[in-house]
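User: Hey, my collaborator sent me this sequence without any context and asked if I could get a structure. I don't really work with proteins. Can you help?
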Amino acid sequence: MNLPMEQSIRRDKIQITVTLEPKTFRRFAIYDTFKRLKRWRMPVVFALIMLAFAAICFAMRDRAQSMLLGSVLAAVGLGLPIVYFGMFFASLNANVKSQKLPKKVYQLSLSGEPNGVVVQSLTDQNERMELKWESLFAAYRDKECIYLYIVPSKAFLLPDDQATATPDELWAFLQRHMPAGRTIG
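Assistant: No problem. I've predicted the 3D structure and written it out in structure-token form, which is a compact way to encode the shape of the chain:
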């Protein structure tokens, strides 16, 4: 009896030379800050609390200065979160400009060996890392990119179509070699 062959070829090594585009970097920064770290929560909670106090002030309109206090609370409740998000996006745009994107930034070699992740910087030839699969923090799959975190605060971006494998093959490779539960997406 013949067993069905695998539809995709299992690769034992994948090379990724990453050219970082501004769009990819922006998507990562937004994903990391607002989706993974959920830093949108505090400004939204602050706004809701301030707007609730403003509503209480507006409900007590027969008291002196209640409308003024309600207006100030509403303005602060909406203004500070707007400033927070505005500063984030302004800082992100400045960061993109300072990095002079797009440019080639690093090359990753992935293999099935225990020290299977080798990262070589393309901007500084002296920067090279060899990492063990079990030491990697996590891999997140987002639209058009995989974010490979070596620690919670440092990730390598693996944009689609820059590897010697398809995005699905790359994701399957990471799922096979990383510890269980560390590939999300």
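In plain terms: The longest strand covers residues 103-111. You can pass these tokens on to your collaborator as they are.
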